[in-house]
Structures are given as structure tokens and as C-alpha cells.
Amino acid sequence: MRAAAYTGAGSAAEVVSIQEIATPEPGPGEVLVKVAAAGLNPVDVKIRAAGHDFGAIRYSAHPGWDVAGTVVAAGEGVQEWSAGDRVFALAAFPEAAHTLAEYAVVPATDLAAPPRRWTAAQAGAAPLAALTAWQALDAAGIGDRAEGRRVLVLGGAGGVGHLAVQLAASRGAHVIATASPAKSALVAGWGAAEVVDYRDKAALSAIGPVDAVIVTVDGAPPHGAIGQGTAVVTITGLSKEQEERLREAGADPVTRILVSADGAQLARIAALADAGALTVHLDATYPLDELAAAQERVETGRVTGKVVVLVDADADA
Ligand SMILES: NC(=O)c1ccc[n+]([C@@H]2O[C@H](COP(=O)([O-])OP(=O)(O)OC[C@H]3O[C@@H](n4cnc5c(N)ncnc54)[C@H](OP(=O)(O)O)[C@@H]3O)[C@@H](O)[C@H]2O)c1
Fold first, then answer.
1. How far is the CA of 61 from the centre of ligand 1 (A)?
2. In which element (H, E) is residue 77 found?
3. Distance 303 CA to ligand 1 centre (A)
């Protein structure tokens, strides 16, 4: 089969290649998926540039974690999936997977049936970002019934942010999101009641205390948004000093999360999508042969929604 491979650490142009390698076989508890589409995330480009593990996140010379496709074979002990089933997954994360290939082995517990409303490209693009948004909201105490709760999403136009805005809105929260003016209308369309220009210091300081802040960009939340008991969940990290200042201002908890693969949560995300509450905005779609260009697009930091690789040219984009 054809599969993406890194030839070492370095830039996308230097180290991304497409190689012919043996098609893997599913072991116990695993399924083999014919890949239709595989999303890209900032972690893919960071780990490629470094060429080694990132803490708990495993480096592999055959990369990729997001996947949508069709089951072709189920390993020993797998009852719930069989050949022909359409599936999507965040595969094995933070362990290594290699979904940027024509076929990929995925742990059965990571799989869910994709939303019928989404294209294969949208389903392949979503899992890591959607699970991150879901798990961040849960960690912030923004559960299923969040009516009347104020949630600030820092970075409302990115891969994780645009899904966090929609998920928080679907849980009933009053969502405030930051974005550049050019993306403001899109972010409002995803359910943000207020969109604040992230370069406008006065507008940022005018955001009053919120119940929860989901931080998907570098840096700390604006001071005015923090009150007694404001939950701050970051997916990018905060310095010790930033954490201390937030706690002094009353923030509690202040937490950093790392997303984990979870097929059951993905099934709940798919149900919301089928109910019309969640869409995936595609910034750009690339064929597998153009993986280097796709990674360069992610590296700009200017992506709106998601970048996805359409591995099977016949799949619906
Ligand atoms: N901990 C975890 O489990 C986890 C999981 C997923 C992602 N992450 C990390 O979280 C970060 C976000 O990931 P992502 O996939 O959402 O990124 P992304 O899609 O690449 O984010 C790009 C978007 O961020 C916007 N943006 C940039 N700076 C901003 C700012 N200061 N305020 C508001 N918006 C801003 C950009 O808008 P403009 O073009 O208008 O500037 C662009 O639309 C990355 O560092 C990633 O590695 C961590």
C-alpha cells in the first residue's frame, strides 16, 4: 500500500515522502480500515519537525491519527465491527498510529460510525479536534445542560475552537469567542453569541467574568474574564506564573488536558452532528501525494476549521 513516511526530522519539504510498504494486519482487538480521509493537526507538524516523542505523544515515521474509512477486516475478539462498516476514529492517540496511508490498523474501541450528514473528508478531519473540544468542555464543567453558563473560547476559528464553539452552544451555553474580524461572521454562524477581535485589547478587557474559558491559542485568558470559580482549561499550556496569577484572580480549576482516543465519545459527537448541531468547516483538502503542502498549510497557523488529506480520490470530499 501507499503510505506517508518521514525520512527524519525537518521541514515538510525535506522529510515528507510517500512510500510503498506492506499492508498491515489487524491484531486482537483491532480492525483494518481502508482509509478515505485523514485529518491533519498541529501536533502532526510539531512532531515531524522534532522527529521524536513529545512527552506522552509517540513519534512514528509513519504518521497520522485521524481517520475515516471502511472496515475491511476485523481482528480476533472484535464483535462490534465487520467488513463494510463505515467508521471514523482518533486512532490510538497518544500512542502511534499511521492513518496517512491507504490502509490503517485502528483499535476497535476507538471507532464510531461517522455522521451520515458529513462527507468522508469531514469525518476524517474531525476526530482529534472534536474529542479535544469535548474533553475540554467536560474538564471545565460545561456538561450537557449548560443553559445560562458563559463560556469563552479563545481561538474560535481554529480546528479545535470551531468545534468547541458549536459544542458549547449545543449544550446551551452563552458562547463568547475570539477571532480575527475576517472570520467573525463564520464564528457567529457556528453559535457564538459574541465574537471579539483577539487583537483588540479594549474589547478583550471588556469581557466580563465567565464560568469557563477554553484556551486553544498560546497565552493566558484576558484578566477581566476571570472571576471566582472560573474554570480555565488550556490545550496549549500556561507558564507557572500565568497559572498563579489566574488562581489569585479566583480561577478554579486551572487545568491542562491532553486529548485521548475514545470511540464512545465520538459516537455521541456523531449523534450531535446527525441532529444538525455540529459541522466541520474544511479549510483545504489535499491528495496524499501533496501531504507536504497540506502540512505547510497547517504550519501557517492561519487555518480556519480543518485541513484534511483525501487518501481515496473516490471518497466524497
Ligand atoms: N492538548 C491537546 O490535547 C491538544 C489537542 C489539539 C490541539 N492542541 C494544540 O492546540 C492548539 C490549537 O490547535 P488547532 O488545531 O485548533 O489549531 P489551528 O486550527 O491551527 O488554529 C488556527 C486558528 O487560530 C487562530 N488564532 C491564532 N492566534 C489566535 C489568537 N491569539 N486568538 C484567537 N485566534 C487565534 C487563527 O486565526 P487567524 O488566522 O485569524 O489568526 C486560525 O484560525 C495547537 O497548539 C495544538 O497543538 C492540543
1. 24
2. none
3. 8
